[in-house]
Design a protein that fits this description.
Elements (H helix, E strand, L loop, with lengths): L1 E2 L5 E2 L1 H24 L2 E2 L19 E6 L1 H4 L3 E5 L7 E3 L20 E8 L8 E2 L1 H8 L8 E5 L10 H4 L3 E2 L1 H9 L4 E4 L15 H6 L5 E4 L12 E7 L7 E8 L1
Helix pairs in contact: 3-5
Length: 249
């Protein structure tokens, strides 16, 4: 190793310094990747919110313990719409695709997040809010995630009964943009005051083979995007929906 008259490191020392710099840059890139990973899955736990009948309460109970059996294990009582779930058109229409029909490539997609103003109980979500948020970037085949801040009420009494919902114009805006997946932090895109068997908004959306992800959390941390959304539902045969893990990266 030597120094030139200008104080520049030469020889083996220069090579080692270059390697250290490259290692440092790679570490920065790794840290940035980790910091840009957001788990938008809500936690499943005893006593959590639920949609009510005919769906049973969520229950998690130990069936084996280290003290008694030498290993730990639990039994789960869940249903299709427990926690954060992925849903198909078969929820409303017989003969349509179920989860096991979906090619795994559809579980990975580009996603944009529409950051709309915080919504009060039973407040509509309007089409112009989505247009202002992502209308300039959303393309056919993208996933659209809508952040209303409602996930801050997870496990409160009003989380399902007073959920914000879509106006008719909002769903039409979404359908016209041919999104592949719609993700929301609310529990109902329909007005919760409607009779439970009136699902005109959902029927309009599922007229095509689209996917619905709901309810998610932490979208306020995601900005606008774009992100790569990964959604991995439980591999259950013959069902319209199942709990899933959803990650933005």
């Amino acid at each position: 190793m030597g120094l030139t008259s200008y104080g520049i490191i030469t020889g083996a020392g220069a090579i080692r310094s270059s390697m250290l710099l490259n290692d440092s840059c790679e570490k920065i890139r790794e840290d940035e990747t980790v910091s840009r990973t957001i788990d938008i899955t809500g936690t499943i736990a005893n006593g959590m919110w639920n949609y009510g009948m005919p769906f049973p309460d969520i229950a998690i109970k130990p069936v084996a313990t280290l003290a008694e059996h030498g290993f730990d294990g639990h039994a789960f009582q869940l249903h299709s719409f427990a926690g954060t779930y992925l849903e198909t058109a078969n929820h409303l229409f017989a003969g349509r695709e179920q989860l096991h029909h979906i090619d795994p490539s559809r579980f990975f997609m580009r996603a944009w997040v529409a950051q709309v103003p915080d919504k009060a109980p039973l407040e509509p979500i309007y089409a112009h809010e989505l247009e202002e948020a992502v209308g300039d970037v959303l393309e056919p085949g993208d996933a659209l995630l809508i952040a209303t801040g409602w996930d801050s009420r997870w496990n409160t009494a009003e989380f399902t009964t007073a959920s914000p919902f879509f106006s008719d114009e909002t769903m039409e805006w979404i359908v016209q943009r041919s999104v592949s997946l719609l993700g929301v932090d609310i529990t109902s895109i329909e007005d919760p005051r409607k009779p439970p068997d009136v699902m005109s908004q959902l029927a309009h959306y599922f007229a095509g083979d689209r996917l619905l992800l709901a309810p998610v959390v932490r979208l306020r941390e995601a900005g606008k995007g774009p992100w790569t959304l990964t959604v991995l539902p439980l591999a259950v045969h013959g069902v319209c929906a199942a709990p899933c893990r959803a990650i933005l990266r």
